[in-house]
Design goal:
three-stranded antiparallel beta sheet; 483 residues; alpha/beta; 15 helices; 12 strands
Length: 483
């Protein structure tokens, strides 16, 4: 199933569900330990502090932006063989067939190193926002601000075709299931039941750098997710247009909405000996306060002129840019954001839909980067993609089916771009990287290695990396070198 972008209905139930997204994602407060943690977070001593004075971003500020391509991106058409023999095999009936892209429309790239093959990008990956005279992702690759990472996926241990076929090593459970693989990507621990996401574990470790924060360092622009679930840091959700607020509320002392709001606040502030009710009241009060504070910060004009598109993704990334620019006011030196764009589960009619999706991503990820350049924060913000899984190399008609390994990109001023990292799959049906007969690639780089590289840049020490990625010791490297 392809996850839909939630529509933000600003009533009380939606408000609490969004603002307390991590509560729902961890099982609706199913354990006493979680309740005690939530109660501590909600206590008055941990309430919102006075925002720091606005100003330029601190030199030690950093942000990670996870862009989740929900539904499983067909990255076989994101990075395409461009040499004569490679393209011929790609476009053949035994290769991509009806979903092969015309060679004349591909955007050739020249990575700094080569495995002997030539590569190109999908033509939509240089789309920009109309009328802005900017350029898209392909230009960022050429400028050295975007890196590509080949054949990444969920792995329990390094796995060869022989091991996969013999089932002689543990494999990620429910390997081709959307829901399971989304959770396993976002947790990076496929061999254990879900408890926290790797973004949440990173946040738990580095949150001490945010000494005067007035809102959570983990902010979702697309509802609840597994990636940002931590043990200490609770993810906070805002909608693509800004903070989520309660409908029917008011600061008026005499209106019905104002009286209702005052009565609600009195109920939330009242003493309560019940652990669950006290935690719920504290979290709700903090969510209301945080929402009001964010609304105040975001109510003015944005401190930049870069244009984003009017799509849902464009507005998600625009709001992320505004929240980054507001970091001094929020009192944070570390932020982790989650954005999501759906529509990638293309079992049919793939070519046109895929082109539109890539154009949307190119326009708005490049706009986010150029905004960071504009405010002098390009080296401090890194955007990276994730997705359920890749897709089969051969077609089911005019679409593709669920696969495994996939290709991804990373954008930012600190990125060592203009290069393909990891190892691109051998694109041979029934070949050494194929799980069977469809071109479902066995990953040659694990999510652990991908995430550990980003976490190291973000400030997680070598000693603490196994806390974030418990399985990292099973893989070849902790740093893939792309940043």
């Amino acid at each position: 199933m392809n996850p839909k972008n939630p529509k933000f209905d600003p009533n009380r139930r939606r408000f609490l569900g969004a603002c307390c997204a991590a509560v729902s994602a961890t099982g609706m407060l199913s354990t006493l330990a979680q309740l005690r943690m939530m109660g501590a977070v909600a206590s008055p001593s941990n309430g919102p502090s006075v925002p720091a004075r606005a100003g330029a971003l601190p030199p030690d500020y950093k942000a990670l932006v996870c862009l989740f391509l929900a539904g499983g991106n067909d990255a076989n058409n994101m990075i395409v063989p461009f040499d004569t023999n490679g393209y011929s095999a790609y476009a053949s009936a035994a290769g991509r067939g009806a979903i092969a892209l015309p060679r004349t429309q591909l955007l050739g790239i020249t990575p700094k190193t080569t495995d002997g093959r030539e590569w190109a990008l999908h033509s939509s990956l240089n789309a920009d926002v109309a009328g802005t005279n900017t350029t898209g992702l392909k230009s960022l690759f050429d400028e050295g601000k975007m890196a590509l990472l080949g054949n990444v996926g969920t792995l329990v241990v390094p796995t060869t075709k022989a091991q996969y076929t013999a089932r002689s090593v543990p494999l990620p459970p429910q390997l081709f299931s959307h829901n399971d693989q989304q959770v396993e990507w976002q947790s990076s621990v496929p061999d254990k039941p879900f408890s926290t996401g790797w973004g949440g574990r990173v946040a738990d470790l580095v949150d001490a750098m945010n000494t005067n924060s007035s809102v959570s360092m983990a902010i979702s622009l697309n509802g609840q997710n597994s990636f940002q679930v931590g043990k200490k840091v609770v993810q906070f959700a805002v909608n693509p247009g800004g903070a989520i607020s309660l409908s029917g509320s008011s600061t008026s002392a005499t209106s019905a909405a104002g009286l209702r709001t005052r009565a609600q606040n009195d109920l939330l502030a009242g003493p309560n000996s019940n652990l669950f009710e006290a935690a719920f009241a504290g979290l709700t009060s903090n969510a209301i306060s945080d929402s009001a504070m964010l609304s105040s910060i975001l109510s003015g004009n944005p401190p930049f002129t870069t244009t984003f598109s009017g799509t849902n993704l464009g507005q998600q990334l625009r709001t992320i840019a505004r929240l980054i620019a507001a970091a001094p006011q929020l009192g944070v030196k570390r932020q982790i954001f989650f954005a999501r764009i759906g529509g990638w589960d293309l079992h049919d009619a793939q070519l046109g839909a895929h082109s539109n999706l890539f154009a949307d991503v190119s326009r708005n990820v490049s706009a986010l980067h150029r905004t960071m350049v504009e405010i002098g924060a390009a080296d401090q913000v890194t955007t990276f993609t994730a997705s359920d899984f890749g897709r089969t190399y051969n077609t089911n008609g005019d679409g593709s089916d669920h696969g495994w390994g996939s290709n991804h990109f990373i954008v930012g001023g600190a990125v060592k771009g203009g290069e393909i990292y990891g190892k691109m799959a051998d694109l041979t049906i029934r070949g050494p990287d194929d799980t069977g007969t469809r071109g479902s690639w066995i990953p040659t780089t694990s999510v652990d290695e991908y995430g550990a590289t980003l976490a190291t840049w973000f400030g997680v020490s070598a000693t603490d990396l196994p806390v974030v990625f418990p399985n990292i010791g099973r893989f070849a490297t902790r740093n893939l070198g792309f940043i």
